[in-house]
């Protein structure tokens, strides 16, 4: 069995990489990838705490995995909507650079 500290370290590294991508990138697609990394880090945390939180329990509840599946579904919907918005911005500005989005005209 994988130790809890290793899973939490992996989650922390993934979350830090995602946060770094969100804060430093100008490309909208790379920012979306960073957000997805952060969501996956949270999912690893949910599963790790669910797995190690029920040591010795004969009838484990499945709330942890159900919450992760719900989170994955929300992340997929968020990625689809985000990519659709980025595609429309690209059609309008011919760039995915967020610094070029300074006007609100149609």
The general outline is elongated
Q: Could you tell me the CATH topology label.
A: Helix Hairpins
Indicate the CATH class.
Mainly Alpha
How many helices? The count is 3
Query: What kind of assembly state do the chains in view correspond to?
Result: single chain
pLDDT < 50 stretches: none
Helix/sheet category? mainly alpha
Terminal CA distance:
56 Å
Kindly report the average pLDDT value: 88
- Helical fraction equals over 70%
| DSSP strand content | under 5%
Please provide the count of β strands.
0
- Main sheet record: none
Radius of gyration: 18 Å
**The CATH architecture:** Orthogonal Bundle
The helix-strand sequence is HHH
How many domains would you count in the coordinates? 1
Question: What labels describe this entry?
Answer:
106 residues
Task: Describe the protein in words.
This protein is mainly alpha-helical and 106 residues long. It has a single domain, classed as Helix Hairpins. The protein has 3 helices and no strands. Helix 1 packs antiparallel against helix 2 and helix 2 (28-53) packs antiparallel against helix 3 (63-93). The longest helix is centred in the last third of the chain and has 31 residues, at 63-93. It is elongated and about 60 Å long. It starts with a helix and ends in a 13-residue tail after the last helix. The model has no long low-confidence stretch (mean pLDDT 88).
Short description:
The chain is mostly helical and about 110 residues long.
Outline the fold blueprint:
Layout: H1 4-24, H2 28-53, H3 63-93
Helix pairs in contact: 1-2, 2-3
């Amino acid at each position: 069995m994988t130790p809890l500290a290793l899973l939490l370290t992996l989650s922390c590294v993934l979350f830090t990489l995602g946060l770094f991508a969100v804060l430093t990138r100008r490309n909208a697609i790379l920012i979306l990838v960073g957000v997805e990394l952060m969501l996956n880090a949270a999912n690893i945390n949910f599963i790790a705490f669910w797995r190690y939180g029920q040591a010795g329990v004969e009838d484990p509840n499945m709330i942890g995995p159900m919450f992760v599946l719900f989170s994955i579904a929300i992340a997929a919907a968020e990625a689809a909507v985000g990519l659709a918005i980025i595609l429309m911005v690209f059609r309008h500005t011919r760039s995915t650079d967020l610094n070029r989005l300074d006007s609100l005209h149609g």
